[in-house]
Design brief:
The complex is a heterotrimer. By secondary structure, chain A is of the alpha+beta class. Chain A is built from 2 helices and 5 strands. In chain C, strands 2-3 form a two-stranded antiparallel ribbon. A two-stranded antiparallel sheet of chain C has the order 4-5. Classes of the chains: A alpha+beta, B alpha+beta, C mainly alpha. At the A-C interface, strand 1, strand 2 and strand 5 of A face helix 14, helix 16, strand 1, strand 3 and strand 5 of C.
């Protein structure tokens, strides 16, 4: 253990891990970020069922939450490039999040070719 | 780059004799005026002398009274009955 | 003949030395159980010197005088309806953020120094910690008294204590102090006494408070500078702590360096809130965050760390990254609060053209290129009646707990994502600085109470945003949302219409 505590012997068994999967009522945490569109200041967090199809993540979660951006209506979803937990991937839209290699606290980043934010400013 | 000894004081009537004493006793001191405050900077060392303050104030004055108008400072402090010195010298 | 008055040095020696004793019923280690587990080695506690040589009798005298001066100003401000003379009602929002985010930290500091004073066995530091503990209690009281006057007129202030323990962005300053107070007494002294008080609080209490004066708030500048007069003594204590530890034993250096690195970065992240207050929330700005950073970190910190180099102490890790971020951090933070102001206890707004021009002038390298287009886009949306609010919750950094909105060093168009895996669990960070801190003590930060995750777990009043805001005790429609259309704005406009009528 790297923490230096008054009671090192008992510290480890008193740790309260706050965010294990079991605390999320059957959901897992998923973070999503639209690259080059920083008017959404950070990745967005969602608690989602691991069995949700990736296609539903796109149509029911991602699209509506980014709809306010002027670029949103012009996204060609077939050309979007994806990265899950640091690896470039081509998700299977019909398969579940889990089957697409996602786990609790996975980070999904996506790029929309030709759309680089308001006047190309990445905003 | 020179190390900067610095003191920031309230810009009010209580502090004025101290500010004047600093300006008189510390050649090369630089002044930054801000609303409500004044920052006085000098390379390496800045000194406040009790005698200089008393001369301007017209009464006896202890260097500890500076606490009533002090906002901030930089440098190693050496304080006794006759002076309040901020310095990076060793 | 009258007895000769003792000199300052003699008085200090009499009032601080020989007040302690070696215990006999219990071993000293049992009486002081906290001052050895951190690995710090002290050979001679009597080597401690307080350069201010302040003794308790003089302490009461000076503090009493400071209070008399402060409360005279507060009374005058209230009697003259000073709140109607501030630059603009938007200004009141810095007070809301200050009272909910900073004042409770003063109380935490009071508790922390009381703890350090109890558990360090040398009498010199015990006396200094006792004074600082009392100072911090004075600070929280004077801040509550000052801002209570504004509470009579403006929204978002009344539930500050309740909010501090619950509201998402207030977990940033709260967890900062919880982190320090749950460490041992030496780390606490380095964290708060050195890194925060010496290296960073000037940025809050000097240029920001000067800004309060410039915006017509004589009450806040007075408590601010009154508190800062104590801070000068605290800064001296902070530098004394570090010199003392480094002089006592060479084994202390790597431990102290690790704490300095950690607490510099933790403090830098928390002070990003002040950056936003200075650059965006003062209707009449005085000094940009970047200018303040140059004076108070680059210049003052440079002098300090040059001095400490003789002990082998290095400039904090990532100080260069923090300096580069001074070009960006206020803009990135304002962007966060602008889009989440529906869940915040203060208002945000779109800066007017004169203010945007001021930002362009102060940030010639970054503002027009990266941030002005963002504000222009949002201004356009606002004009179309679609003021931008982000309707999802943001990903938070596991260490600093701020929404992960900071960008890669050298690339302001790409968010910095960092992560660590511990026992199969992933943890996310906004920066290398926050990742290193986590990696240094993963067992501690795995316990972070991250507001977004807590909401999803159902621990914050319910599943919907209104449930959560209710749990925050937020007066929805008054405390939150844009300044434009708020009750604060309506009140301000009435005051000013009244002034014009009276003048005519």
């Amino acid at each position: 253990m790297s923490v230096q505590a008054l009671d090192n012997a008992n510290y480890a068994k008193n740790i309260e891990y706050r965010d294990p999967l079991k605390n999320f009522h059957g959901n897992m945490l998923v973070y999503v970020h639209w690259e080059e569109h920083l008017s959404f200041c950070a990745a967005l967090a969602f608690p989602l069922p691991p069995a949700m199809p990736f296609g539903a993540l796109v149509s029911e979660v991602i699209a509506p939450h980014y709809a306010a951006h002027p670029d949103a209506a012009r996204i060609d979803w077939s050309k979007v490039t994806w990265m899950i937990d640091g690896k470039s991937v081509t998700p299977d839209m019909g398969a579940s999040l889990e089957a697409n290699g996602m786990k609790h606290k996975s980070l999904v980043r996506f790029w929309t070719p030709g759309l680089a934010g308001f006047k190309g400013s990445a905003s | 780059m020179a190390q900067i000894a610095s003191i920031t004081l309230l810009h009010n009537d209580d502090a004025r004799p101290i500010i004047e004493a600093i300006l008189a006793d510390n050649p090369g001191v630089r002044v930054l005026n801000m609303p409500g405050a004044v920052k006085l900077d000098r390379d390496d060392e800045l000194v406040i002398n009790r005698a200089s303050v008393e001369e301007r104030l017209g009464r006896s004055w202890e260097p500890q009274e500076i606490q009533l108008v002090l906002i901030s400072m930089a440098g190693n402090l050496d304080e006794d009955d006759d002076h309040f010195t901020l310095s990076w010298k060793h | 003949m009258a007895p000769k008055k003792l000199g300052l040095k003699q008085r200090y020696a009499h009032m601080t030395r020989g007040l302690d004793w070696e215990t006999s019923y219990q071993p000293m280690d049992a009486v002081y159980p906290f001052d050895s587990f951190e690995g710090i080695k002290i050979k001679d506690w009597s080597a401690w010197e307080d350069p201010f040589r302040l003794t308790m009798d003089a302490y009461w005298k000076f503090q009493g005088e400071k209070e008399r001066k402060l409360y005279a100003v507060l009374d005058a401000f209230a009697q003259n309806n000073g709140q109607t003379g501030i630059s603009d009602a938007r200004y009141a929002n810095v007070l809301k953020l200050f009272l909910t985010g900073v004042s409770p930290l003063e109380y935490q500091a009071h508790r922390g120094f009381a703890f350090a004073g109890r558990h360090l066995r040398g009498v010199g530091p015990r006396v200094a910690c006792q004074m600082q503990s009392l100072d911090e209690l004075r600070h929280v009281q004077t801040q509550i008294h000052t801002i209570s006057h504004y509470n009579k007129y403006f929204d978002g202030i009344s539930e500050f204590r309740h909010m501090h323990d619950r509201v998402w962005y207030l977990s940033v300053p709260k967890s900062f102090f919880d982190d320090a107070r749950s460490a041992g007494p030496f780390e606490y002294m380095i964290a708060i006494g050195f890194a925060f008080e010496y290296v960073l609080t000037n940025l809050l209490f000097v240029p920001f408070m000067s800004g309060a004066a410039y915006n017509g708030d004589m009450s806040t500048v007075t408590f601010g500078f009154s508190a800062q007069s104590d801070e000068s003594r605290h800064m001296t204590l902070g530098i004394e702590v570090i010199k003392f530890l480094l002089e006592q034993h060479p084994d202390n250096l790597p431990i102290v360096q690790k704490w300095v690195d950690k607490w510099f970065w933790r403090g830098h992240r928390v002070l990003g809130l002040v950056a936003m207050m200075m650059d965006y929330m003062l209707p009449k700005p005085v000094m940009s965050w970047k200018e303040a950073w140059e004076i108070y970190f680059t210049e003052a910190g440079g002098s300090l760390f040059t001095d400490l180099a003789r002990y082998g102490l290095k400039v904090p890790k990532y100080a260069d990254v923090a300096t580069a971020e001074a070009e960006h951090i206020s803009h990135q933070n304002w962007a966060i609060f602008y889009q989440y102001t529906h869940a915040a206890g203060f208002h945000t707004w779109m800066p007017d053209k004169a203010h945007l021009d001021w930002l362009s002038e102060k940030y010639p390298n970054t503002f027009d290129k990266y941030y002005r287009p963002r504000w222009e886009m949002w201004a356009e949306m606002e004009k179309q009646g679609k003021r931008f609010y982000n309707n999802a919750l943001p990903q938070l950094c596991q260490t600093c707990q701020i929404p992960m909105g900071y960008t890669e060093p050298g690339d302001p168009t790409t968010i910095a994502f960092r992560c660590s895996e511990v026992d199969g669990e992933t943890y996310h960070f906004c920066s290398d600085g926050c990742k290193d801190i986590f990696d240094g003590e993963p067992e501690k930060y795995a316990q972070s109470w991250l507001p977004v995750h807590q909401i999803f777990q159902g621990n914050c009043g319910g599943a919907t945003v209104p449930d959560v805001l209710n749990w925050y005790r937020m007066n929805v429609g008054a405390d939150n949302m844009d300044y434009v259309g708020s009750p604060d704005e309506k009140l301000w406009n009435e005051w000013h219409a009244g002034k014009v009528r009276d003048a005519v």
